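Example A, followed by Example B.
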Amino acid sequence: MIVNILRFSFKDGTSDKDKAAVLATMRRISSLESTSFGVVGQDLGDPAEGYTHTYCAGIEDLAAMERYMNDPVLIEGDLGVFPHLERLSPVRLSDDMDPGLAERITELHLARVARSPEWARLLESIPDTPIETGR
């Protein structure tokens, strides 16, 4: 199992309506056929870290991760989500002890960047994120 966690906060001035739409989109994404489970809601970490919400999706294996990353619902959803985010920080974990797993997930991510310059541009426009696009 690969667990993908995204801690995030909204840009100042994001309306409650837009926040609700972003959370609804994330809930749709977290319940794709390629996911085993998903949770979207408030971040319960230290408020001083600046995150207000968290997205979590469990993905069975690398093949499911590839389907997940290429699913049109995810691709379209991210285009509507990213413009509203001020901070975005990923955490991934897995019970698969393959030492090359993280590298293969990164390769899937970079392939997506290469296929979708608009997606990469929107990801890069998030003011505070360590997610690299390799561009």
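Example B, a separate protein, is given below in the same form.
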Amino acid sequence: MSRRTSRGKAGKEQAAPRCTVTVCRGCCCGTAKVPGVDHAAQLATLRAELGPVAQVRAVDCLDACEQANVIVVQPSPAGRAAGGRPAWLGLVDDADATADITAWVRAGGPGIAEPPDVLDLYAFSPSRRVRRAVEE
């Protein structure tokens, strides 16, 4: 699958804007505090599956430890223009949930594609302070 590109300043090609998937890997998420999960494999899967269509980044702590493992899917500019908002997903502790997230993001993510119904089980709302810090 090829990335759409556009000409930026100085005529250089730039990748089309895309979703951002933020994966918490701080004090609780991504550690032995959440047992029975291959955290490195989860992150590797997200990067391998989504690399062509989304930016995947690992961050230290999203301050939503009671929901570990936390993944935030932020819409692309087109998704935001269509009304998409960041989706906070918690307790993402199995391969099936990771696969559902990757399928949704590959389909366009927030604002572009409807998430699989099963992701409703993982959705939560963090505090405004935490949300502001990540979404800016």
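On Example B: Helices lie at 39-50, 77-81, 95-106, 128-135.
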